[in-house]
Amino acid sequence: MGNIDHLGLYVALAMKNLYFLNVQIENVVSEVQRLAKHLRVEEVSAQLQK
């Protein structure tokens, strides 16, 4: 992840991807890590706007 300021975008997309009601913190962290490895910040922003 390039900039810590963009962490919020990754967390927001992770929460959007984890749509089930009983979200566990481990799942959010894992999803943020997965997104950070595979998506640029611009891609995350674009997906959040959908």
Shape: globular
Main sheet makeup? none
Structure summary, number of beta strands: 0
Q: Which sequence of SSEs, written as H and E, runs from N to C?
A: HHH
Question: Which range best describes the helical content: under 10%, 10-25%, 25-40%, 40-55%, 55-70% or over 70%?
Answer: 55-70%
Distance between the termini: 22 Å
Unreliable segments of 5+ consecutive residues: none
Q: Estimate what percentage of residues fall within beta strands.
A: under 5%
Structural class: mainly alpha
Radius of gyration: 10 Å
Mean residue pLDDT: 81
What's the helix count?
Answer: 3
- Overall tally of domains: 1
What does this entry look like structurally?
The protein is mostly helical and 50 residues long. The protein has one domain. 66% of the residues lie in helices and 0% in strands. It is built from 3 helices and no strands. The model has no long low-confidence stretch (mean pLDDT 81).
Sum up the structure in keywords.
50 residues; mainly alpha; 0% strand; globular
Q: How are the elements arranged and paired?
A:
Layout: H1 7-17, H2 25-38, H3 41-48
Helix pairs in contact: 1-2, 1-3
Q: In a few lines, what is going on in this structure?
A:
The protein is mostly helical and 50 residues long.
